[in-house]
Amino acid sequence: MKISESKRLFAHAQNFIPGGVNSPVRAFRAVGGDPLFIKRADGAFIFDEDDNAYIELINSWGPMILGHNHPLIRQAVIEAMDNGTSFGAPTAKEIEIAELIVQMVPSVEKVRMVNSGTEATMSAIRVARGFTGRDKFIKMEGHYHGHGDSFLISAGSGAITMGNPDSPGVTKGTAQDTLLAPYNSLAAIEELVAANKGEIAALILEPVPGNMGLTIPFPGYLQGLREICTREGIVLIFDEVMTGFRLAPGGAQELFGVTPDMTTLGKIIGGGMPVGAYGGKKEIMEHVSPAGPVYQAGTLSGNPIAMSAGLAMLNYLNDHRQVYGELLTIGRKIAEGIMKINLELGYNYTVNHLGSMYSLFFSQDPVVDFESAKKSDTQLFGNYFQAMLKRGVYLAPSQFESLFLSTALRDDLISQILQAHRESMKEIHSI
User: Residue 377 catalytic?
Assistant: First the structure.
């Protein structure tokens, strides 16, 4: 496979861009080799600068649930462009998409549009603090909520140990208000709450984590969090930037029947354009400026191009809910096919799957939280990534990222993916 143009571009990029990329995982540090520079995408395929085609299972890290360059989304963007690209003033489409989000997402009674998932989660925590008058919040180990200072905190030990900064530039003062807990442990949450009685403003988590690889909540876990937060006056925030509109029209909260107080959204909500949002109960959202005292603003929030793309996407998903059954079938065929091949070859690796998300962990133990995810053989995953890439299948370049499927994956493409998997597993275990 010739990738000389990608190699040239990467070498050139490092002269002007830190690490040669604008988001760290794109550098392929976790899997080896040089990153591919993508020129275009269509349906289930991406094409690099050397004109190699790949079946890809990232879909821009989630947004392209209908596949790349979908004609409906493309047309919406083209039509919006005819009227201009940015106004810095209210538009009718902002109301339309807000009304649709309120209709689709169980927890959202009012919503504020922003420009990214990071902006949404940062704002949600600020609003929760303003609403409750408390400073501390709980996050789960291994859950990613963007690169806001408060979220880049490593785990402490014990119920009253504060987090420590996980990145230079994050102050200890910021870290001290962040409390860490393992995912899927209600006992750990109870311990933190007891040790910080009346001081916790919010608990934020990915209801279905995708940033330590896909991990599934234990039965009753999300409901247990809801009960604890209700009892303690803590704002429960579901970060559904990944799972919103992907696992169900109303996201993971609809799928599991648990309604948080606030929800953060992104990815699919923009149809591929940079968009985020946060919303929740009216009494909480009324604290957001200009209705209330909690300040948050953005020049490009509600951008008309992004709103048009997102509105086209959400309207389609709302009107064609059979899409979720199709995605479940696609996900099952791939995940179950991988498990079957692994067993045939004598390898009992863990595959977690839910709807149109799945992860193959190079670990023989169940993966239920960050600690169990970290037991995976990352070197073996890197070998697997390169073997699949060589066979024309583009995966997320990290063991600790979920894969995201689209409706563009036809049966013939699924067969190609599974054949590539079989050949790759044989190759990496013969090294």
Answer: no
Percent of the chain with pLDDT over 70: 97
- Residues in Cβ contact with 187 at an 8 Å cutoff, skipping those fewer than 6 apart: none
Question: What is the SS3 assignment for 294?
Answer: strand
| Annotated active-site residue in 93, 136, 139, 267 | 267
Instruction: Please compute, for residue 390, the number of CA atoms within 13 A of its CA located in the half-sphere on the CB side.
Output: 13
Smallest CA-to-CA distance from 356 within 230, 202, 249 is with 249
Q: What does the radius of gyration of the chain's CA atoms come to, in whole angstroms?
A: 21
Residues 34 and 7: beta-carbon distance below 8 Å = yes
List per-block mean pLDDT (blocks of 10 residues) for the chain, which spans 431 residues: 95 97 92 96 98 97 97 97 96 98 98 96 97 96 87 50 62 83 97 96 97 96 98 98 98 98 97 96 97 95 97 98 98 98 97 98 96 95 98 96 97 98 97 68
What spatial distance separates the first Cα and last Cα of the chain, rounded to whole Å? 20
Reduced to 3 states, what is the DSSP secondary structure of residue 419?
helix
Tell me if the pTM is above 0.90.
yes
Which residue among 93, 110, 144, 261 is the active-site one? 144
267 is catalytic: yes
Closest CA to 370 of 262, 228, 214: 214
User: Is 118 in contact with 211 (CB distance < 8 Å)?
Assistant: no
Backbone angles phi, psi at 425, to 5 degrees: -65, -40
Alpha carbon separation from 31 to 28, 197, 378, 383, 384 (Å, rounded): 5, 43, 8, 7, 9
Give the whole-angstrom CA distance, residue 246 versus residue 253.
11
Which is catalytic among the residues 48, 177, 239, 369?
Answer: 239
Enumerate residues 6+ apart whose C-beta is below 8 A from 29. none
* β-strand partners of 359: 352
- The answer to whether residue 144 is catalytic is yes
What value, to the nearest 5°, has the Cα angle with vertex 37 and ends 62 and 424? Answer: 70
